[in-house]
User: What shape does this take?
Amino acid sequence: MLEIKNLHVKLEDEDKQILKGVDLSLEAGKVHAIMGPNGSGKSTLSYVLSGKDGYEVTEGSAHLQGEDVLDMEPEERAAAGLFLAFQYPVEIPGVGNMTFLRTAVNAQRKARGEEELSAGDFLKVVREKAKTLKIDAEMLKRPVNVGFSGGEKKRNEILQMAMLEPKMCILDETDSGLDVDAMKLVSEGVNALRDAGRTFLVITHYQRLLDHIKPDVVHIMANGRIVKTGGPELALEVEQNGYADILAEEVA
Amino acid sequence: MSLDVEVKDGVDQETVDAVKELSGTYKYGWNTDIEMEYAPKGVNTDIVKLISEKNEEPEWMTEWRLQAFERWEKMTEPEWAMVSYPKIDFQDQYYYARPKSMVEKPKSLDEVDPKLLATYEKLGIPLKEQALLAGVEAPEEERKVAVDAVFDSVSVGTTFKDELAKAGVIFCSISEAIREHPELVKKYLGSVVPVSDNYYATLNSAVFSDGSFVYVPPGVRCPMELSTYFRINAENTGQFERTLIIADKGSYVSYLEGCTAPQRDTAQLHAAVVEIVIEEDAEVKYSTVQNWYPGDEDGKGGIYNFVTKRADCRGDRAKVMWTQVETGSAVTWKYPSCILRGNDTQGEFYSIAIANNMQQADTGTKMVHLGKNTKSRIVSKGISAGKAQNTYRGLVSMHPKAKNSRNYTQCDSLLIGDKCGAHTVPYIEVKNNSSRVEHEATTSKVDDEQLFYCRQRGMDEEEAVALVVNGFCKEVLQALPMEFAMEAQALVAISLEGSVG
Assistant: This one.
């Protein structure tokens, strides 16, 4: 699904290297988790893959189903099936959540040469998906993320994901700011989307999210590189011992 | 030609046919196949007399115009607005142009700027108005909108006149009103915007060529939206239209005004006057979507828009609501105002002003509270992009007798890019102790995070900007009648094209 090779990234305005040769191979239908200490480059990886300004790729490549994503505009990446659930979803005053969703869905359909969804069809789908995430009609009408609680914002991200049906989903610390109940709801939403044709990259600090969204592969990232890869047990190891042991291993 | 369109004196059938003909090719720019009849360039008493004569006006009207002209000659152009433009040579303009019997001079499509074509194609809405003008009946379920179309100096035709007449509503061109309803015109013309009001209004009083007239009798709720569609077409021609709306006691009318002009390299002058009289318990909504040609990216050409619009809430409990979407013009100088004369009267002003490229907008409102318990509300959204300058200038004045009056003003500015400017200039005068005035102002930039968020969800950059900006304008867009809200949203997107990246 997504092949990342030797990815080197620096800040555009500063001489600061953040990613120093990331290699990742994410197969279709799998859930990969990336864990790592603060400042290891996890969020940068998600931004670079989705095309945010301010970063410069100095070396390496990233291909989504064989297509060079680093060469695309952010909206082209989205239409190609790449989705980022933001750690801090952005507020857009005055724009109804529903309007936003519909504009996004139809923009992607248009970009892929598909017909736009009619208002009626769209409404039907969105109501159904919103229900499973416990998003009520009121929340669909409110301006995008404005005055939403932390949990509401994250649920809203998952609703967008469910509506856009991307192939490659990147979840950037989706568990941050969530209480246990909200985490459960969000995880259920994600699990419902697990599919043989869909890949997840779950970025998180904590093992607890991975109790709910069971990963197939766990990577540890540190200092701009993937330093260790293993099965779900690796997450438990981190939970118990912290990163120190793994990092020490790496240095050694 | 359907019976819904009345052909006026001074406009021959061929003209109407030509406009009808053009309605089919509008999206290809009607810039223009109509041969014009011009009065000589410049303005003097002879021209004023000629305009009056062309409109077959009675002597009192000619006199009124001449007095205005005499005053205008002694006045000087105001310079206090935050706009700069080359000095206008008022003698180098045509003051009267009307379509002659047509000799079709078909122009090839490639003479028209493709950008302009694209704009019209995307706009769509004026076509609907033209369909009406051409007498095409709207399907039953659609709300009807009566249209008066002013093409350069003359009103071409008014739709749905018979249906309106049944309700007792008079909706016709002002030149017709002067001939047919002199008692109403005499009583109200110049009573809201006096002849001597300001430089442009005085000039307008002398040389106005046509415009719209509305009278809604006591207790009548006008059965449909009324709309005037202004089009400046001829080159080097000033358009000076005059609109007079009278809402008698307990009546209601909603009025829409749309404006467009073709692309010209030279700037063109537009100096309109709109007067609204609102009697006891009456209510008027006046909405404008102004899309005059704004000039090119370098500021070449475009319309200089100097407009005086004022509503006088004469009777107690009278209400007025101005809503404007200003996207066009090279220079905009416009302050739709409310005189809250009666007790318990209400004035509202909702405005979106977009300035892109080299456009300059100095716009706002005046709320003059004279009566007791009067209320006003101002919501202004200014959007600047490119190298444009956007100024909100607003006066809130509470007179000594305006006890217990209230004003709320909200002024928000949005900047796109770092070469544009937004300015807020509120003037507040309170001359009694029991009134309250609130003013809130914010300035923000279109946030990169917001744009990235939208783009990550699949919208392209322009779509993202349009979405964010439409969100910013929402309170004002909601105040527009439905027919205009869609058009306005599309306009917001079009006006800002190319403003990012």
